[in-house]
Amino acid sequence: MRLTLSLLALSCAAVPFAAASADAPLPAAATAHPELWPKAKSVGLVDPETEAKITKMMAEMSVREKVGQMIQPSIASMKPEELREYPVGSILGGGNDPPLSGNDRGPASDWIATAEAFRQVSIEKRPGHVPIPVIFGMDSVHGNSNVFGATIFPHNVGLGAMRDPALMEKIGQVTAAESAASGFDWAFGPTVTVPQDDRWGRAYEGYSERPEITREYSAAMVRGLQGVPGKSRIQNGNVAASIKHFLADGGTHGGIDQGDAQVPEKDLIELHVPGYVSGIDAGAMTVMASFSSWNGVKNHGNKTLLTDVLKGRLGFEGFTVGDWNAHGQIPGCTNGNCPQTFNAGLDMAMVPNDWKDLFNNTLKQVQDGTIPMARVDDAVRRILRVKFKLGLFDPARPYEHRTELGTPEHRAVARQAAAESLVLLKNNGALLPIKPGQKVLVTGTHADDIGMQTGGWTMSWQGTGNTNADFPGATSIWGGLKTAIEAAGGTATLSADGKVTGTKPDVAVVVFGETPYAEMVGDISTLEFQPGDKQALAQLKALKAAGIPVVSVFISGRALWVNPEINQSDAFVAAFLPGSEGEGLADVLVARKDGTPNKDFRGKLSYSWPKNAGQFANNVGQPGYDPQFAYGYGLTYKDKTSVPQLSEVAGLDASLSNVSVYYLPGKVLTPWKLATGGAVAVKNVDGGGTQEGARQFSFSGPGEVRIEGPTVDLNRQSNAMLSLRIDYRVDAQGSGAGAAAPKLGVGETFVDGGKVFTAAPGQWASVKVSLSCFAKAGADMTKISRPFVLQGNAGQTISVSTVKLDADPTGAICPN
Predict the structure, then answer these.
(1) What is the pTM of this model?
(2) Which of 178, 197, 257, 519 is catalytic?
């Protein structure tokens, strides 16, 4: 689900509304033939007693109340009291949305109070109103991951490596209990996508490139979240599951988020639907439709998929929900006006901000027959069915009064999952496990950073801006290693920069990898790790040059080309995104006091790893399949396999991928170049923690400094609220009271630099300016060849150590 209000601009809001019928013929390539698809059948949802209650209730409901059940706003754009005028059926908490208290790092009680505020208004007894509780949905992507203090599990990319459906069911149970204890009724998961292109920024939300693991895990997670079909109740710590995103979101051409799955129908059937079949058979209460298209037709408007296949052939008896404003991307629709999606079979539209418009327009369209009443009644029956079966009409919420978040029992499940998800790619010389009594140096950017190891969809949409303080009760990888190494009689030292002081260590553990990201922002164009900026590789080489054996622990949301890093490592562990329990890694990497392994490696690759940086779609069973590490690969301590030197030919120009990092301490990154014009002098100065790592720009008159290169499209980054981040120091402000302030530009559009570079002279500072600020000022973000321009005047001197795009919107400014 897309979870930030800043992405409203991605919709087709500028497209004038034009009535279109979902019954209009679809292109042949986007028309499903249900008779070709497998059969499934919902269980535990339909029974005569419940259906009779629903029939009676619907007879009492007004058309306005029925339409309201089909609308889902965000808690950031709706107040509880507005339910009295707009009786919507559901609310959601977006990834960046705080509870009503305004504190997104607040305790679970803040979320409970938010849920209770909306719930109580929805069930008020007042004239002309049928009391129907709202259902509160939340993206519990890997645990109850939006709530402070919750247990955070490994992301799906790692869980797929475990091959352990029984543990998946336990993970579902813990996620449900912690969600119910926070006031939520509904988890937007599991994600049952089958990613086919590792460039996709949501690849880590998929269990595997193959459907077999996904099929098993889908059923296990649904059972864990919902409990026994027919007995699922919020009072028992169950929540409604939502298998997503229907359909083939992981099969889009080029791995582009919200893109087009240009595949034949047989691929939908063989690769992409098995997780839905098993999830429906396990009793899944809801299904979320995908942003993406199938052969040019948006899934939110494809009746043959949403109605004929899902509700027909697959026998789904719960309700379908949309993704974040995805209905607005249907041609002829806007976020606030889209009868097409309801006529196609969507039961509840997720419309975070424009919900009043959608409510009012949908009501008119029901009244004038554009949306048939039978379609409305079907949607409302399905929604009420889930609410009754989940126990929402019973006001008791015993789990909201229990201490469930981050309990030792829950963390033990996450710790086990972290351990089981590790995959050993290399262990030359049997360097692992770390032996008793060894002196161990632990280093790397991710060693003592829980935010890095938990990744995206954690506390915020992109998972950025988190610190260890945001994870009370959690353990970093360093914390876990230190405890285990010392328990085995060794010593552990943490070094931020990897430098060795004192006695040479017996082994170095370097923890490094990708920085957090989520959908869209995570889309990449090369599988090379750190293209053009090989910081981790440089650290590995320095340790090897010092004669220190190296264990690499690689944190990533996907299979990447890391052959150079593997070559500089004696042992290499793919740890994926292991979650909040760093001790799980130590359980496998560190031996007992007697030298025997505490736990062996269990993980086997559920994604094939590339032999070069251009092997984007590198999936088992495809013609020409030639991976570096094949699907199912994974060493154990019993294996004596020695990995030889791997090819370091990337096979793809790294510069093609870099649209977001322009200058780091000491260098401008390709394909970008530094250029100047006018009266400006440039020299190297210390900065960014690096000797001569900054560039100092001294203006003796009007002048310009710019980073320039190929023309790139930054429109999606602008819509996603990315910022231009600059680490700077003002060395001289210019002479005279009337001196003009500097200007900061992107492309040909400028903002007031006097409101950007506000730090005290001589002090290093960081500032983030929203890309959308430049877009609002007139910049064409689809054609940017100058992502950074600084214009100054006589007497002004500014030093810069970093210029790059930043996905964390916290603290971003717009001087205009």
Answers:
(1) 0.88
(2) 519
